[in-house]
Specification:
Helices cover 37% and strands 18% of the residues. The protein has a 5-stranded parallel sheet, sandwiched between helices. Strands 7-6-8-10-12 form a 5-stranded mixed sheet, sandwiched between helices. Helix 1 links the parallel strand 1 and strand 2. Helix 4 runs antiparallel to helix 5 and helix 7 packs parallel to helix 8. It is globular and about 60 Å long.
């Protein structure tokens, strides 16, 4: 039995589909706000603050392997401080809480390991979702401009990694337009689009989305999909640069069709 601890986004849907296709037995710990997986067999509602309860439940169900998939919204600090169910792990979680998501996830993985529960890669049963090569090298931007944005963007993201800041940056003609904050990639794209409109950019921007240096790719691999590409096209972004074999792509065939139709760059490095 495999345990799925699922959050928001489309990724869990694809993983669940693959598990069913492979006839794997699994149960779902649903952390989504609206409990979107409640109709699934063996789906159980949980809250992000119920770590001790989740571990006890997984042991009861003899789940020794789990996948952490989907985006989980960080709880308010006061919700953690006054939640008696977290007292067992509270000192450890508080110590890393303000250091960023990567540190918090690493500590949670350690806690699972101490309880003889192995956290597998989210792509363990879905390796075909990992992007291994560029889908398009065509771009409405000039090659030199793309190169300038790529080099500067990667350098900035590398320097920001030590602060566990977002994995996405958007540049235009070598100038930084937006860096991802707690709002997530989609809202960062929209913010960049608003800036492009406000200042009447002549050229399209380039987005770079790569893992942070200490990011645990088992549970936090960058994801792009049809929605990401559509948002970019609608917000003056002409291409995305990602890391080869370190990026999940959803609905790959539909993405390929859309980017070819719009002369959109999707490059792996």
């Amino acid at each position: 039995m495999v345990g799925l601890i699922v959050g928001e986004g489309n990724l869990p849907r694809f993983v669940i589909f693959n598990l069913r296709k492979q006839k794997k037995k699994f149960l779902i710990l649903d952390l989504t706000k609206n409990k979107k997986y409640k109709k699934h067999k063996n789906s159980y509602p949980f809250d992000i603050t119920q770590l001790a309860k989740a571990i006890s439940f997984l042991k009861k169900k003899n789940c020794k392997k789990i996948l952490l998939i989907g985006k989980v919204i960080r709880p308010n600090l006061s919700k953690i401080l006054f939640n008696p169910r977290l007292l067992l792990y509270l000192p450890r979680l508080l110590k890393v809480f303000k250091k960023g998501d990567s540190n918090l996830l690493s500590e949670i993985i350690k806690i699972f390991k101490e309880n003889n529960i192995t956290v597998l890669s989210s792509m363990h049963y879905s390796p075909e979702l990992i992007l291994s090569k560029s889908l398009s090298t065509k771009s409405s931007n000039k090659e030199k401009e793309v190169s300038i944005n790529e080099k500067k963007g990667l350098k900035i993201l590398k320097n920001l990694s030590q602060f566990d800041v977002g994995q996405t940056i958007i540049l235009n003609n070598g100038y930084v337009v937006a860096i991802e904050g707690p709002e997530g990639t989609n809202e960062t794209i929209k913010r960049a689009g608003n800036i492009a409109m406000r200042y009447n950019f002549r050229n399209k921007s380039i987005m770079i989305k790569v893992p942070k240096q200490k990011q645990d790719l088992r549970v936090d691999m960058p994801v792009i999909g049809l929605q990401t590409i559509r948002l970019c096209i609608n917000n003056n972004i002409g291409g995305i640069i990602v890391k080869k074999n370190q990026t999940i792509i959803l609905e790959k065939n539909k993405v390929a069709e859309l980017i070819n139709k719009n002369n959109f760059l999707l490059k792996t490095i």
